What does this fold into?
Amino acid sequence: MRKFEGFMKGVNLGGWISQFDKYDKAHFESFITAKDIDYIKSLGFDHVRVPVDYNVLEDEEGNIKEDGFRYLCDCLNWCGERGLNMLIDLHECFGYSFDPLKKDMDRSKFFYDEELQNRFLRLWREIAERFGSYPDRVAFEPLNEVVLESVADAWNKVLKRYIEEMRAVTRDTYIIAGGVMYNNVRTVPLIDIPLDEKIVYNFHCYDPFLFTHQGAYWVEDMDPDFRTGYTETEEYFEEIFAPALKKAEKDNVPLYCGEYGVIDLADNHEKLKWLKDIHCAFEKHGIGHALWNYKEKDFGLVDESFEDIREDFIKLYGHT
It folds into this structure.
């Protein structure tokens, strides 16, 4: 199977210019800096996935915010100086969010609303015009985690429009297309889009969910005191990845896992077993991947909660 070259070992910069507690320029200017990119490079990563929310890049009327684009430009410059690549992920767009804490969000409207889609495409055209001239260094992910399975066909139509718009600006930038049900790996076979040499199929993996999200406050009906161990094996990932691998091989498209990780409430040695198994599957099948998350957001690699297995993880990462 083809590999997503340059995007094989990554980490997410979640919580920087997406999923922040409040819109705060002091936070944006300090949460991730060139020193963080230095450290990421030193750990052997080859790219960062940069989630960004629409309200950093445009105001509520859709006017472009130059200061918001500056954060992406800074990150590109930091990465370029250190030989890292960068994936721009629009984590939320105007009219759509995956965030389960936004309980009043209509998660289907965007996929059937042409006006919302037109605004989404206008923002992406702006992104493409600014970053499409770096096709060897920057990749585009149109939208994070489509929640509802019922919008799969409508999402394919949006992706088709998106690809057409992007290809009018940049022919060679990688486009990362995911499925539905929070980008579940089992929904990769539902992706039905125009293909070219720079299309990549994307999924996220937090399976088994009760293990990776044990005690998570944002999960509905989750007991905050619930704890469990990891009882699966590498064969578990072989099984759940199989349909996605078959689809990717059939279409001659690289496969990429844009998010995977275990909540900081889990036992670290159980977490390391999970990481070893999923990494074995990534390595065996040449699947690029980006750990969730570099810092904070309940999954942070550099957080104190990860400290006693960090070196083991880094050694593990060096072998994939």
